[in-house]
Specification:
With 382 residues, this protein is an alpha+beta fold. It has helices spanning 3-14, 30-42, 48-57, 59-62, 75-84, 87-102, 155-164, 182-190, 204-219, 257-260, 300-307, 309-320, 334-350, 358-367, 369-378; strands spanning 109-117, 130-137, 142-148, 172-175, 194-199, 229-237, 240-250, 268-277, 282-291.
């Protein structure tokens, strides 16, 4: 990637974001502010002071493709601009780039889950923690979109808004128990997608019916019902052994027709029984799922396992590598805009196929401008 192509891409993707500031009082171009922030976060910055520090250290290099008419903005300027910038506009630019990539990937399983930013909580100001619901492509390790939960609501209201922003046709949507709602299944089915939803105590009758069926099934000593599909897998690593057994059964054998008809496209109950052996203890767990896929679908284990990626490969990375949970950014739109920038940076790093941990790639990008350009060129964004 050349600096000329980088400059052109920055203008193309971020130069059209409307600037609501008074032009005569604006010392810095909005596109420069956004570009410096993205590059700084990609290279290890986790707050406004760190972004300013990166900008000043890389000023001469940044000036080769950014205008920077009055040098590098102060950390107060970065904080003020991102507290005022409409996050919906920044999100649209984020999704516009993701669609360029996702359109060529063929998304299969999309995991939906929420994450609380604990550092955004402020007791003195009666400010609740910001909760972001993200859509995650497990197979490509890519954040597809995110939606903030209204401060007076919960994830149930944010999930439908997030789903509307995505092209879900032919995809499999996995959601934890919070999103196991009849209206959400109807929305997913209406766009030609399928779902696997966790069934827990928030639907007590269905959960009890599922437990009763499992007990009855385990007690059968003769031929098992042919309609029940069983899968078994075993994995060893990280000083543990995990065994999982899956059952998938048509819902007609578990629930009554009245309850089945309340859920759009509901076809299958999936049961996962897991046994985890550590050096000092063994734990067992049983989980239930509702799905619109037929009981003969053979990839239930992979689809269910892929949902864990949003915790292990997204939420964990944001907290440990990008220090998201430690962030004390709280003012106005700033927390949400910072989460978008961090997810954008994570996506950029994920597109680089070279060896090395995400943490070391951020560190190396901050030291080596050529390596930073390599990451940017791999993303199709720059």
């Amino acid at each position: 990637m050349t600096k000329e192509s980088l400059k052109k891409s920055i203008e193309e993707h971020f130069g059209k974001i409307p600037d609501e500031r008074v032009t005569t009082r604006s010392l810095h171009k909005l596109v420069d502010i956004i570009a410096v922030a993205i590059l700084a976060i990609l290279c290890g910055a986790d707050g406004w002071v760190a972004i300013e520090t990166y900008g000043k250290a890389k000023k001469e290099w940044l000036k080769t493709f950014l205008e920077l008419p009055n040098g590098i903005p102060s950390h107060d300027t970065f904080g003020r601009i991102f507290s005022q910038l409409d996050p919906e506009i920044l999100e649209r630019n984020f999704q516009g780039w993701v669609k360029i990539i996702a359109g060529n990937l063929g998304l299969e399983v999309i995991a939906i889950d929420g994450k609380s930013l604990n550092g955004s909580y402020d007791r003195e100001s009666s400010l609740k923690s910001l909760v972001m619901v993200s859509a995650w492509s497990a197979s490509h390790k890519l954040v597809l979109a995110q939606e903030a939960v209204d401060k007076k609501s919960n994830e149930i209201t944010a999930i439908p808004i997030l789903l509307k922003q995505l092209d879900l046709k032919s995809a499999i949507i996995t959601i934890d128990a919070m999103g196991t709602q009849r209206a959400i299944t109807k929305q997913i089915q209406s766009v030609g997608a399928d779902y696997i939803l966790t069934l827990k105590a928030n639907h007590p009758t269905l959960a009890q019916n599922a437990r009763d069926w499992l007990e009855k099934y385990k007690q059968e000593t003769e031929d098992k019902e042919k309609s029940v599909t069983e899968e078994f897998n075993c994995e060893a690593g990280h000083h543990r052994i995990e065994k999982r057994r899956f059952f998938s059964v048509p819902v007609e054998e578990v629930f009554d027709s009245k309850r089945i008809n309340q859920w759009a496209g509901l076809k299958t109950l999936i049961v996962e029984q897991s046994c985890r052996q550590l050096w000092n203890k063994t734990t067992e767990n049983t989980r239930f799922f509702l799905s619109s896929l037929g009981s003969d679908f053979v990839n239930f284990p992979d689809a269910i396992r892929s949902h864990w990626g949003i915790e292990n490969q997204l939420h964990w990375c944001l907290d440990v590598i990008f220090s998201e949970d430690d962030s004390r950014i709280r003012k106005d739109h700033a927390p949400r805009n910072m989460t978008i920038l961090k997810r954008l940076a994570l996506n950029l790093i994920r597109q680089d196929s070279s060896k090395g941990s995400l943490k070391m790639k951020r560190y190396q990008a901050g030291l080596d401008n050529n390596f930073l350009l390599k990451i940017l060129s791999a993303s199709n964004l720059f």
